[in-house]
Amino acid sequence: xxxxxxxxxxxxxxxxxxxxxxxxxxxxxxxxxxxxxxxxxxxxxxxxxxxxxxxxxxxxxxxxxxxxxxxxxxxxxxxxxxxxxxxxxxxxxxxxxxxxxxxxxxxxxxxxxxxxxxxxxxxxxxxxxxxxxxxxxxxxxxxxxxxxxxxxxxxxxxxxxxxxxxxxxxxxxxxxxxxxxxxxxxxxxxxxxxxxxxxxxxxxxxxxxxxxxxxxxxxxxxxxxxxxxxxxxxxxxxxxxxxxxxxxxxxxxxxxxxxxxxxxxxxxxxxxxxxxxxxxxxxxxxxxxxxxxxxxxxxxxxxxxxxxxxxxxxxxxxxxxxxxxxxxxxxxxxxxxxxxxxxxxxxxxxxxxxxxxxxxxxxxxxxxxxxxxxxxxxxxxxxxxxxxxxxxxxxxxxxxxxxxxxxxxxxxxxxxxxxxxxxxxxxxxxxxxxxxxxxxxxxxxxxxxxxxxxxxxxxxxxxxxxxx
Amino acid sequence: xxxxxxxxxxxxxxxxxxxxxxxxxxxxxxxxxxxxxxxxxxxxxxxxxxxxxxxxxxxxxxxxxxxxxxxxxxxxxxxxxxxxxxxxxxxxxxxxxxxxxxxxxxxxxxxxxxxxxxxxxxxxxxxxxxxxxxxxxxxxxxxxxxxxxxxxxxxxxxxxxxxxxxxxxxxxxxxxxxxxxxxxxxxxxxxxxxxxxxxxxxxxxxxxxxxxxxxxxxxxxxxxxxxxxxxxxxxxxxxxxxxxxxxxxxxxxxxxxxxxxxxxxxxxxxxxxxxxxxxxxxxxxxxxxxxxxxxxxxxxxxxxxxxxxxxxxxxxxxxxxxxxxxxxxxxxxxxxxxxxxxxxxxxxxxxxxxxxxxxxxxxxxxxxxxxxxxxxxxxxxxxxxxxxxxxxxxxxxxxxxxxxxxxxxxxxxxxxxxxxxxxxxxxxxxxxxxxxxxxxxxxxxxxxxxxxxxxxxxxxxxxxxxxxxxxxx
Lengths: 468, 473
Description:
The complex is a heterodimer of chains A (468) and B (473).
Chain A: H1 3-7, E1 14-15, H2 24-34, E2 48-51, E3 54-58, E4 64-71, H3 86-96, E5 114-119, E6 124-131, H4 137-153, H5 159-178, H6 181-193, H7 207-211, H8 215-225, E7 231-237, H9 241-252, H10 264-267, E8 275-283, E9 290-298, H11 304-318, H12 326-331, E10 338-350, E11 353-362, H13 368-385, H14 389-407, H15 413-421, H16 433-438, H17 442-452, E12 457-465
Parallel strand pairs in A: 3-7, 8-12
Antiparallel strand pairs in A: 1-5, 2-3, 4-6, 4-7, 5-6, 9-11, 9-12, 10-11
Helix pairs in contact in A: 2-14, 2-15, 3-5, 3-8, 4-9, 13-17
Chain B: H1 2-11, H2 24-28, E1 44-47, E2 53-58, E3 64-72, H3 75-78, H4 85-95, H5 103-113, E4 116-121, E5 125-133, H6 137-149, H7 155-172, H8 176-189, H9 193-199, H10 204-207, H11 211-221, E6 227-233, H12 237-248, E7 271-275, E8 281-289, H13 297-308, H14 314-322, E9 326-337, E10 340-349, H15 354-371, H16 375-393, H17 396-408, H18 415-424, H19 428-438, E11 444-449, E12 459-461
Parallel strand pairs in B: 2-6, 7-11, 7-12
Antiparallel strand pairs in B: 1-2, 3-5, 3-6, 4-5, 8-10, 8-11, 9-10
Helix pairs in contact in B: 4-7, 4-11, 6-12, 8-9, 13-16, 13-19, 14-15, 16-18
């Protein structure tokens, strides 16, 4: 669990894919393994910036080539609330649209390959994979760069295709979320926690906003964000720098290099208004009772990486079964109050904003409501006790090992990069993370624990099975 | 590296593994410029000194060693009163702690080592795995040995797992896709014991399971003569054999193997509507098949991909692109028992397009059976499937998993070496012969919808309890 940690996504990711779609959760899981730390020497990353905004991750032993275009714009960058969900709708339109160099839908780019896309609050990504032993690898890369650089200039879609994709997005919404009691409540909780922020909305939109989608609005969003200065390309596989560089520059150099407008949710600090609200869902589709306490806090932040490093350690502790963890305190022992810990994390959501989530299912004979004071008391106790030096060193050793392991795996590199760049965090600082994690102290942890045991904006969520 | 090798050498003793087949010859005879890159994975099989069947693949550059293993296990089919053991036994063994470590401490030890171990129980076998960096291999092996031979099996953990299991089963049918799949499965499995495994009703099949039942199952099944281990990673054959013997030496020598229970699926071609308030109409069409993942498995995967794989698949184009009725559609074959499976095509569609989607799915399947697949569809899929294999076989964990899967599917341990040549020989005509041989001519259709109106149902029910009345001729 490492970059899920770092990247702290509140928003739900949506995809154009059928099955096997790339979920942020999965991608985060990969990235997670990626980040641990090096105590003594600076690690060498796999990726190379072969041209402006173009990364190559060489993987000489792989038999696959992966191409990705990452647009630094997602649902949090939308301004039209009547048509909220447009960033994801645009992803669909780009993938089914045609252009002069590609007369079939982009989801079928290569007959022997695979294609996909995903959108979340912060980014939209397009992915293509094909065999590295194809006889026309340079031509394929050329086609991909041409297609997507044309897409940065403009895109066209027939009214019929646009209308159909609106229906498809609606079916995606219904299939993923409509029948799920947890999603329905999650949407309410997120909106409450971030009342004045685009982070308070779910990426896919609602049935009402999906019905209102228009190509004109999608084009407005596209014009604002789909530009050379706001995208990254990532190519992974057994490739030489020169090949990727030459093809990329052939198409990217002529493009307008103007920078996109500033992103409001990045530049405008979020102000947390402390209050508490309880959300209760009783539903026959819920199997086991559970209670969650989710809180949002403002935290003093002089260096984003320091906050990230500290919360990484803290989050790994909370989700562990180490002595003093929620599991050891509430589930184990002679008088357990919970039968399982179902959530335990600290995330850096935005600059200077942390969210803390603890959830548990009650032990037999207890109710979900009774879990709430127990969970809150646990955090307060932890803030008093702190985390001891031996445990901190143990967690740091694990992190260092996993970070090294991830750096040795080229196939996970793009996920690590995407997580970092879309956070958004500067690429130049990525290599600093291991050392900063290595320098986290028990004092740092205590300071963060003090913040998160105070009064934040609090959502208490109770899920209960509905009796027959 | 030298330090690691030296340390391993300390515990190596007698090495008696007999190579049964090595793929080196394949590599020499393969044209280097072939579109199908020929790989020799040098997989061999033999027995360890302790008598354990071991399949070995060396990956000298890998930093982790992996073991995957399985025991033949048909106990679940014979547990008439405690069928729920199949969902509880392995989980309790692996998650309850072992020896001097409670469950939490055990898990944290593994995290410190950067290792993972697993154990899961199925209908005809129990499987497990170990993946560890070389530096932590010895310690991880000891943890696996202790959990297999001296698991703590805490009663409180079993009771919690039973409660979660039962509560999950109570609500599972509330999800329309689950309901449709269970209905189709029950119709095909009829009154065979495997239906009890699918449904786990009454819930006493779960609640009556005790720690003693789990312990009894463990001792009866997890034995050396019933065990096959696949080792992939830096260890040589000899090193792997010694390591495997040390990890599994504490197991009983021989297992109690339960006999197979013959299975004959029920064929039915009806349209059954389960009326229920749902957000989308679920359309599931299927029937029994014996198209396994074994010798004809590659053709099977190609056929399923053409019909209902990704964005190029016929069902996707028909249901999503032409009708805009759905987010997607799929075709699959799921295993039931032995060589028997259920072929199914499925889509969740907008209510107002359900009739059109149903007609379209039926028409696509009719054309698929009649006309089969084309060369233009088959060749790219062959390239894609062949290209994926080297990436699977270059990592310890995925290589060991892939070899075990091949063995369990009846392909043998050397399947990876044979795959490129095998793939190259596949033609659209060959796939079409198998489509006609294995896929049902008529399918049972299960629809979950708010109303049966317009769907031409043979039988309309409100819940699974009413399903038997639909199975009457």
